[in-house]
Amino acid sequence: MVKYFRKISLLLGSFLMLQIAFAQRNWNGYGIELNAMQARVFKHTEAFKAPIPASSQLIELHLVHKTRGEQPWHSLRHFPQIGIGFSYTHYGLDSIYGRGYSMYPTLQYRIAEKKAWSWTYRMGLGAGYLSKKFERYNTWDTLNNMIGSGFNIYFMAATDLHYAINPHWDIQAGLQFTHFSNAATLKPNLGINTYGFHLGVRYFPIIEDKRVTIGKDAVPKLLDNKKVWNLRLAYAINQSGSGDGPLYGVYHTSLMRSKYYRHKNKVFGGVDFTYHKRIYAFLRNNEIYPGNEGAHSYNASIFLGNTFLFGRIGFQIQSGVYIKNAYLRDEPWYQKFGFEYYVMQHPKGFLKELAISGLIKTHINKAELLEWGLNCGF
């Protein structure tokens, strides 16, 4: 009990220090939120062999900002709250699960609002660290067949019911889901999922709720380009076989046509080509298609997707269908989601946009890879 008291005391101390800092800086619309979550791990596949802890706990410190129209996308996106979250997860079975530490940017929207009450949803995607992972040596932690790496992707989604005590203080209660995974970069990678109920408090030292609605004329002129050709080059790493197997590169090229609409979205479609060194090595090692392994080591697909634009940051989702399969096949369709950061957005010239991207590729609920790429728009 003492160790939990120390952690909560540390977070409350940080809460008060940040409160003082916010007040001194006079940051209008910036606030801090503290949530405590009672959670439970759930098995999402029969391959999940570890015992389920009786209960898990999560503590989240969240720095938030009420957008007021400082950027054009604020009003276009109906003034969401943006922030960055820091969370600590105690799964309740340290010998197998260890503990989780994560940091992630978040975006929160109001679903409904009436007087002092509001209903919101929030999503976050970032990085996390797990103190225990699958190991054959030297800890022989083979019962943990969920995660094969210390550093992972962290995803959370929550919905809350807020009550505003006054313009500065809110209390909230809600449901939350969290997920740790390395997107199959290292095996095993079943992932650790939790769900649960949380209670929290939020404080805004300075509130001047004056919004600035920016019209379409002030939207960056890049969005006036109705259509753009895009070439995306990406790279990923996959592990072959079970844990501690060899690592192989995955090379990816996309050619697509994109179109901006409603000044805040970009729809796109095109063709994917992906070459797998892992499949090439498998064919070589097993003397399958000798001399012609390369032709059976890549797949091709057609896809459609959408990028939700938030200034220079885009959240991207897409879905595709294979038109040519590699030797080792997956399901006939796939999904990708992740982010793009636009290093350059220019309405004129040959190179109109340049973005760095990170996308997770999945087949329904099974991750295949995490690819990092460079997207050029012409």
Structural description of this entry:
The protein has 378 residues and is mainly β. The chain folds into 2 domains: 2-203, Porin, CATH 2.40.160.20; 220-377, Beta Barrel (Porin). Helix content is 10%, strand content 54%. It has 3 helices and 16 strands. It has helices at residues 2-25, 72-76, 277-285; strands spanning 30-41, 56-66, 81-90, 99-114, 117-130, 151-164, 169-181, 192-203, 227-239, 247-261, 265-276, 298-310, 313-324, 333-345, 353-363, 366-377. The strands form 2 sheets. An 8-stranded antiparallel barrel has the order 1-2-3-4-5-6-7-8. Mean pLDDT is 88; it is low at 20-24.
Summarize the structure.
The protein has 378 residues and is mainly β. The chain contains 3 helices and 16 strands.
Helix content: 10-25%
What's the total helix number?
Answer: 3
Q: What is the C-alpha radius of gyration, as a whole number of Å?
A: 23 Å
CATH architecture of the largest domain: Beta Barrel
Q: Summarize the main sheet.
A: 8 strands, antiparallel, barrel
Pattern of helices and strands:
HEEHEEEEEEEEEHEEEEE
Which descriptor suits the 3D outline?
flat
Number of domains: 2
Main sheet strand line-up: 1-2-3-4-5-6-7-8
Distance between the termini: 59 Å
What fold name stands as the CATH topology of the largest domain? Answer: Porin
Give start-end ranges of low-pLDDT stretches: 20-24
| Number of strand elements | 16
Mean pLDDT: 88
> Which band does the percent of strand residues land in?
over 45%
The chain-level structural class is: mainly beta
Q: For the record, what CATH class of the largest domain applies? A: Mainly Beta
